[in-house]
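Thread: "does anyone have the structure for this chain?"

Original post by V.I.:
We have the sequence but no experimental structure in hand. Need at least a predicted one for the grant figures.
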Amino acid sequence: MNYLRLLGGYMMRSQLTFSITAIALIFPLAFISCADNADNNSNTNTNQQAQAYTEQDFVSDPNLAAHPDRKVVVVHLEPETADESSNLTGEIGFDVIPFNYTAATNQTLCWEDPDADAAHVMKLLDSEGQELVSIGANEECVTVTLVPGRYEMHLIHDNKSDATVPLFIQPNVPSDQIASSQTSESANVKKLIATNKCVGCDLRYTLFDFTTLENCTVDNVGENDVATMDLNQSDMTGSTFKGFSVCNGLFYEVILKDATIIGGNFDATTFSASDLSNSTSTSVEFIDVDFSGASFENAIITDSDFFQAQFFPDQFNDNNPTIFNGATITNSNFQESFGLKLAVFWNTTLKDCDLTGLDLTENFLFGQTDLTGSNLTSTNLSNTIMADVIFDDVILEQANLSGFVCGQCSFTGANFEGANVQGINIDATGAIWTDGACVCQDASCSNC
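Reply from O.Q.:
Generated one for you, tokens below.
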């Protein structure tokens, strides 16, 4: 028997189970199933095969149909008040996803939404347009016998708010991951699905082009808001994120290698032990995000904001440090971030970045790193040792550099006005010294 479940904000994989999960914040729909069904087409994204379907895929290929035992389907269910441009399938206020069954299947459908008041509806229609099943969010599960053929799943917004509800439809949910409730067969379904989760999902090379959700900030997300999203241990290698907003998300041990993240924001979200190597982030707000033990190796980060982000070693993973080796970071903000001094920087570029006021006191920091044009005003580097670092045109005004040692480092154009340089050991040639006017003519700045 197949189980299909609509869940408010979560998807997981299992056998003979089909489920829809509504995450009213970022991905709320999940399908889960394992019948002998096969995709009739394979779409690609960034020259790789996408492991999830989006609504755009069905628009681009009218012959395409999802299958209960195959790829994840990501749906963004818009309300009737949404702009016409937000609608891709169906009409404003409801979406239509085609499904193809190649074998007779007993399909159980459930919709579990984290919002107890949600009244979204899912209807399953056969090829003749006859309604076979209608189920509302958080209602009892329904089982239907389906013969081979093409079906349409209609997802209808309750229009209680103007929020777009992202949904995952995920196949193959393990039977040991359904949460308890109900009786008999439905109880098994409950054990397989959890709300607000998509743990271990295969979302490689998928385009997540979310409608930006309003009022998604740390200050106004309450404990009862449908904001938390759990994508722990999911694989989103090569995926693209555009125009999104995630609050209080869980991205622990997520794989985002080669991912592209553009113009969105993550607030109070956990990326601990996640792999962002070779990823590209442009104009992204990572506000109060936990990157403990994450890897940014060879990543490219531009015009992004890490305000109050955390970069401590991951205490749950052998204290593995946050890694920036080989990363290129430009014009980005690290003000009031925590633990950056414990991260690993080797052969890293940190040009035109704001590290104002940070405590960077550490035995060794920034090896073979280019800090050209960055702002280290009032930064504490006392007794810190560095090697082969470029400080050209760096602002070091009012910085604490007592006992600071930097071997084979360049400070051309660096501004030391008002800095504490007691016991400093550097080649200051070309730097603007502590009076803010004198330019050093030699390593010891004897002329100043």
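V.I.: this helps a lot. Residues 3-46, 174-196, 211-227 have pLDDT under 50 and may be disordered.
O.Q.: and Residues 184-192 form the longest helix (9 residues).
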